C-alpha cells in the first residue's frame, strides 16, 4: 500500500477498508476459504510509516518500493495499491506491473490519456489483474438512485444536474482542508483532473456513456498558503462548469468547485429529471417525486412562494445495510484477484476518466465542445 500517509490512503483505504476487513475476520471467499489481507505500508517517510504500523499493530512497512516488489517467498506481495499524489502514480504502477503484481489504484490513473492507456495495455499484456477506485458507485445515495433507475421509476430520463463542492480555505487565516498539490497544475492538481474521472463512471454506469463535453474552467482563488504556511500561486483550476451529452441523448450538467459555499444537504447532489418522476441523490440520501405527486407551480413574482417545495419529496428507503464504498469495492477487487471472473472497474475504465478530464481541459482552453471517442485497448 503506497501512499498510506495521505488522506485517502490512510483513512479510506487502510483504516476503513483493509483494517475493517481484518476486523470482520477477513474476506469470506464463499468456497470455504477466507482471504486475510496483510498490508505492507510503503512511503517516503520512515517515521510516519512506523507510527501508522505501531498504531494499528501492523508488522510490515518500507520506504523502498523496489525491494517490496522484488521480495520473494514469505515476503512476496500479491497486490500493489497506489494512493500517492497523482503525479507519482504512473511510474510506480509501471514498476508494479513489470514485477508481475496485480494492481489496484486511486484515480486518476495518470495525468494524460496516453499514459493511462499505456498502463491498461501493460497490465493486460502482463496478465495481471487490475482495478481502479470508483467509490462513488458504492455510495448509499447513488445505490438508491440506481435502484430507482433499474425499477423504471423515471421513464425516459431527460437530464442530470450535479452540484459538487465546498469552500476550501486559502490556508492563511484558516488551514486549507485539502493538500496544496491540488492547486498546482505542475504537481497533478486541478479540480477537472480530480473530479471528471468520478463524473465519467457515475454518468456512464447510471445513465450512459459520455459522448461529448463542453467545459469552462476557472482559478477563482489565485493565491493560497501551503502546509508550511508559505504563500504560493494557484496554477490549477479550482472550479469547472461542464455540460456532457450522453449516448442515449440525456443531457448532464455538473458544476464542481472548491470555491463555493454549501447551500445543499450534501457536498454533492445529483438531480435527475425523467418524464415519470425526478430524484435528488447525494452521498447518503435519495429523495424522489413521482409525476402523480408533482405540484403545479404558477409563476407569480408578486406573491411569496406558496408551497414548501422541499417537503414534497419522498425519502427513498435504505432497504438494506450499506458498507463504506471504498471497502465494498476493495472486497470486490480482492475477490476478483483470488477467484478471477469479470471486473469492469479496471485500468481501461480508469483511462476513460482521464480521457474525459483531458478533453474537458482542452474544451476549456479552446472554448469549444469536444466529442469523446470510445476507447479500446
Ligand atoms: N476516490 C476519491 O474519492 C478520492 C478523493 C481524494 C483524492 N483521491 C486521489 O487519491 C490520491 C491521493 O490524494 P490525497 O488527497 O490522499 O493526497 P495526500 O496529499 O493527502 O496524500 C498523498 C500521498 O502521496 C504521497 N506523496 C505525495 N507526493 C508524492 C510524490 N511526489 N512522490 C511520492 N509520494 C508522494 C504522500 O506522502 C501521501 O502519502 C490522489 O491521486 C487523488 O486524486 C481520490
From TrEMBL:
Gene3D superfamilies, sorted: Dihydrodipicolinate Reductase, domain 2, NAD(P)-binding Rossmann-like Domain
Keywords of the record: Oxidoreductase
Pfam families: GFO_IDH_MocA, GFO_IDH_MocA_C3
Gfo/Idh/MocA-like oxidoreductase N-terminal domain segment(s): 42-131
Domain of life: Bacteria
Example of a GO MF term: nucleotide binding
Limits of the GFO/IDH/MocA-like oxidoreductase domain: 143-279
Name recorded for this polypeptide: Oxidoreductase
Organism: Streptomyces inusitatus
Amino acid at each position: 500500500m503506497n501512499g498510506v500517509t495521505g488522506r485517502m490512503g490512510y483513512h479510506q483505504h487502510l483504516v476503513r477498508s483493509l483494517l475493517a476487513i481484518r476486523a470482520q475476520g477477513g474476506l469470506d471467499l464463499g468456497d470455504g476459504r477466507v482471504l486475510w489481507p496483510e498490508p505492507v505500508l510503503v512511503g517516503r517517510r520512515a517515521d510516519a510509516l512506523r507510527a501508522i504500523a505501531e498504531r494499528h499493530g501492523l508488522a510490515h512497512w518500507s520506504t523502498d518500493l523496489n525491494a517490496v516488489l522484488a521480495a520473494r517467498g514469505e515476503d512476496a506481495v500479491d497486490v500493489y495499491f497506489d494512493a500517492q499524489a497523482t503525479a507519482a502514480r504512473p511510474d510506480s504502477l509501471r514498476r508494479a506491473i513489470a514485477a508481475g503484481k496485480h494492481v489496484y489504484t486511486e484515480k486518476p490513473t495518470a495525468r494524460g490519456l496516453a499514459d493511462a492507456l499505456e498502463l491498461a495495455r501493460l497490465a493486460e499484456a502482463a496478465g495481471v489483474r487490475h482495478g481502479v477506485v470508483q467509490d462513488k458507485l458504492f455510495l448509499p445515495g447513488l445505490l438508491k438512485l440506481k435502484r430507482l433507475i433499474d425499477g423504471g421509476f423515471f421513464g425516459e430520463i431527460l437530464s442530470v444536474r450535479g452540484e459538487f463542492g465546498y469552500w476550501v480555505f486559502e490556508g492563511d487565516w484558516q488551514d486549507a482542508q485539502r493538500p496544496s498539490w491540488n492547486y498546482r497544475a505542475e504537481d497533478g492538481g486541478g479540480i477537472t483532473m480530480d473530479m471528471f474521472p468520478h463524473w465519467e463512471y457515475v454518468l456512464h454506469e447510471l445513465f450512459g456513456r459520455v459522448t461529448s463535453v463542453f467545459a469552462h474552467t476557472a482559478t477563482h482563488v489565485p493565491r493560497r498558503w501551503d502546509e508550511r504556511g508559505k504563500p504560493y500561486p494557484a496554477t490549477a483550476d479550482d472550479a469547472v462548469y461542464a455540460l456532457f451529452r450522453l449516448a442515449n441523448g440525456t443531457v448532464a450538467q455538473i458544476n464542481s468547485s472548491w470555491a463555493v459555499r454549501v447551500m445543499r444537504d450534501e457536498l454533492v447532489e445529483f438531480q435527475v429529471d425523467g418524464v415519470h418522476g425526478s430524484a435528488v441523490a447525494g452521498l447518503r440520501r435519495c429523495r424522489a417525486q413521482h409525476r402523480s405527486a408533482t405540484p403545479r407551480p404558477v409563476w407569480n413574482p408578486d406573491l411569496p412562494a406558496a408551497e414548501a417545495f422541499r417537503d414534497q419529496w419522498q425519502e427513498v428507503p435504505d432497504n438494506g445495510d450499506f458498507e463504506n464504498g471504498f471497502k465494498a469495492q476493495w472486497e470486490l477487487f480482492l475477490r476478483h484477484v483470488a477467484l478471477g471472473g469479470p471486473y469492469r472497474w479496471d485500468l481501461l475504465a480508469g483511462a476513460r476518466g482521464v480521457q474525459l478530464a483531458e478533453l474537458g481541459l482542452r474544451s476549456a482552453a479552446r472554448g469549444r465542445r469536444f466529442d469523446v471517442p470510445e476507447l479500446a485497448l
